[in-house]
Amino acid sequence: MAKHPDVAIVGGGIIGLTCAYFLARAGLTVSVYDRGELGKEASWAGAGIIPPGNPSGAATPIDRLRAIGSMQFQGFSEELREITGIDNGYLRCGGIEFLGHDEDDRAVLDIWTREGIAFEKLPADGLAAYEPAVKEAPGEAYLLPECAQVRNPRHLQALIAACGRMGVGLFPNSPVEMITPDFKNPRLDFCRLPGSRTVNAGRILVAAGPWSNALITPPHQPGPGIHPVRGQIVLLKSPERLITRVLMHGKRYLVPRMDGRVLIGSTEEPEALFEKANTADAVADLLDFATRMVPVFASAELERCWSGLRPGTPDGLPFIGRVPGWDNIFVATGHFRAGVQLSIGTAQAIAELFTGKPTCVPLETFAVGRKPVPGVQPAFRS
Ligand SMILES: Cc1cc2nc3c(=O)[nH]c(=O)nc-3n(C[C@H](O)[C@H](O)[C@H](O)COP(=O)(O)OP(=O)(O)OC[C@H]3O[C@@H](n4cnc5c(N)ncnc54)[C@H](O)[C@@H]3O)c2cc1C
C-alpha cells in the first residue's frame, strides 16, 4: 500500500468503499479512513432494496444513476463473491408497489413507462395469487418483477474484503478532523488525523455521509446543507416465509428475507438530528403498517429495532464531484434513501472523473454549489 495514496477517502460506508474498490480496480492507490468501524452507519442499517431500472431509457441523471446500479448489481455481487467468497445475498425477489390516484402516484407510472421498466398492474382479485398473506392492499397493486434486494451487512463485508484484496488501505477508528488546516489554500493535499498524524494524498474524497457538511465547509459558513435524516426499522421473525416480494407503499415497505424475517421500514425524521434511538410511536406506526397489510404478522416475533442516519440534501439529490474552491478535494454523499442502489453508479462516475474519462452521468446535476432543484420526482420513494 502506498504511503501517500493517489486518493484518500474519508468515510467507509457503502459510498466510500464502493468508490475505493472502483478506483483501485482502475489502477489508483487508495486509502479509506473511518472514524469508527467500517460500514456500521446508515449503510449497515438500510433495507437493501434495489429497484429496477433501464439506463438507456432513464429520463434524468438521478434515474440513470439508479438504473446503472439496478443493471449492474447482480454482476457486481458475483464479482465480489469471486474475489472474496462472500455471498452478499443479492436476490431478484420481485416487488409490488401499491399506488393511489394522486398526481405523484400517476407520475411514478409515467416515469416507469418512459424508462421501459417492466411492470404489470394486477387486477383487484389478482394479488392473492402472488402474495396470499396480504389481506389489505393499501392501493392498486403493480408487480415489478425485476425489483431486487441485497443484505447490507453482507454486502459491506464483501466490499471491505474486496478492497483489502485490491490493496486498498483500510483504516477504521481513524477520525479525520480537518481536510486542510488552511481553507485559503485550495491545493493543500493532506488531512490531519488524531495524534498529529497527517496523510498526504493526490486527491481527497469526502464520503462521510451526514457528517460530510462540516468537513467541506469553512468555519461559520452553512455549507451545502448535507444533514442527517433518521430512518427507523423494525425486524420481525416468523418461522416461515409469509411474503416473498418487497411490498412498497410510498415511503413504507416490507422486505422479506429468505429465512422468514421481514424488515419493516421506514421513517423520515430530519428533526431527530444525529440521535439514533428508536421511538415508541415510530415503532408502533411501522408495526401498524405491517399488520394491517399482512395481519398474520401480528403473531410474529419482534426481533429487533434500529435506525440509521441517511445523508440528506436540500433538494434530495446527492453531491458528486469537486468541492468548489479546491482542485483536489471531492465529495460523494447525500444519497438520502437510495445510497445502496446509487452506490455503483456513483463509484463508476468518480472512477471516470479521476481517470479523465467522460462520466456516465452529467456531474453538473450533482455539483456542490448548484441551485437546489425543487420537486425532483423519484421513480421509487421507498
Ligand atoms: C432505515 C434505512 C433504510 C434504508 N434503505 C435503503 C434501501 O432499501 N435502498 C437504498 O438504496 N438505500 C437505503 N437507505 C439509504 C442508504 O442506507 C444510505 O443512503 C447510504 O447508506 C449512505 O451511505 P454513505 O456511505 O454515504 O454513508 P454512511 O453509511 O453514513 O457512511 C459514512 C461513514 O463516514 C464515517 N465518518 C463520518 N465522519 C467521519 C470523519 N470525520 N472521519 C472519518 N470517517 C467519518 C462514518 O463513521 C460512516 O461510516 C436506507 C437508509 C436507512 C437509514
How many helices? The count is: 9
Question: Which ligands occur here?
Answer: flavin-adenine dinucleotide
Rg (CA only): 21 Å
Beginning-to-end CA distance, first to last residue = 39 Å
Query: In order across it, which strands form the biggest sheet?
Result: 5-6-4-13-14-15-12-16
Beta-strand fraction estimate:
15-25%
Q: What does the largest sheet look like?
A: 8 strands, mixed
Q: By helix and strand content, what is the structural category?
A: alpha/beta
Q: Main traits of this protein?
A:
alpha/beta, 8-stranded mixed beta sheet, 6-stranded mixed beta sheet, binds flavin-adenine dinucleotide
Summarize the structure.
This protein has 382 residues and is α/β, with parallel strands linked by helices. Helices cover 27% and strands 22% of the residues. The longest helix has 24 residues, at 61-84.
